[in-house]
TrEMBL record:
Domain (LRRCT): residue spans on this chain: 83-134
Main location: membrane
Membrane topology category: Single-pass membrane protein
Residues passing through the membrane, by range: 144-169
Source species of the chain: Thamnophis sirtalis
The protein's name: Platelet glycoprotein Ib beta chain-like
InterPro entries associated with the record: Cys-rich_flank_reg_C, GPIb-IX-V_Complex, LRR_dom_sf
SUPFAM superfamilies given in the database record: L domain-like
Keyword annotations of the record: Cell adhesion, Disulfide bond, Leucine-rich repeat, Membrane, Signal, Transmembrane, Transmembrane helix
């Protein structure tokens, strides 16, 4: 960015517009969020549709929310350098937007910080396969965790089922023994009663 552009910004910054998103500074058609410690969770979700220049450089952004630039039809340039861009699934929107820009040389300093095998690569020139491969790796990890959780769940269910069957069988055995004991008691009582009658006779 030229010295003249910086001078132009600082002259106009005092003319703050009412819809300027926090913590940015705004002038006519310019939104300056440079060095405001923006993160993925604090970046404004929208900007004025009249925005022509947007400064997001020197923050802590790892991706741009999907659709953030779509309604900025007057946008001429976005300054993005100095952010720790994470070139995984979430970077696909930014890459797509950059590839539609006429002046790609403006974005040669927008490079990946992670993952390690893409570190230093210019986001504009990343292939979709390179990014999707990181997505697949992430999904594989999630799928593995899901499968392990499912296996543990099924195992717990099987153990509970075995315990239920065990206690049902045990209860049936105890009930059977109790019935046999009662039958023996009644038989002994009958024998005792018969013996008592015989002794009386």
């Amino acid at each position: 960015m030229s010295l003249g552009s910086f001078f132009f910004i600082f002259i106009l910054l005092p003319l703050v517009t009412p819809d300027c998103p926090s913590p940015c500074r705004c002038a006519i058609n310019i939104v300056d969020c440079m060095s405001t410690s923006l993160t993925d969770g604090t970046i404004p979700l929208s900007f004025s549709s009249s925005t022509e220049k947007l400064f997001l450089n020197n923050n802590y952004l790892t991706f741009i929310p999907k659709g953030l630039f779509d309604n900025l039809h007057n946008l001429q340039a976005v300054y993005l350098r100095g952010n720790p861009w994470e070139c995984t699934c979430n970077i696909l929107y930014l890459r797509s937007w950059l590839q539609w820009q006429d002046n790609r040389t403006l974005y040669r300093d927008v490079v990946c910080s992670t993952p390690a095998h893409l570190q230093g690569r210019i986001i504009t020139y990343l292939s979709e396969d390179e990014i999707i491969s990181t997505c697949q790796s992430w999904y594989c990890g999630v799928a593995l965790v899901a499968q392990i959780c499912l296996f543990v769940f099924v195992l717990v269910q099987a153990i509970l089922l075995l315990l239920v069957v065990f206690y049902i069988c045990r209860f049936q055995r105890i009930a059977k023994e109790a019935r046999r004991t009662m039958v023996d008691v009644y038989e002994n009582m009958d024998l005792w009663e018969s013996a008592r009658k015989n002794s009386i006779d």
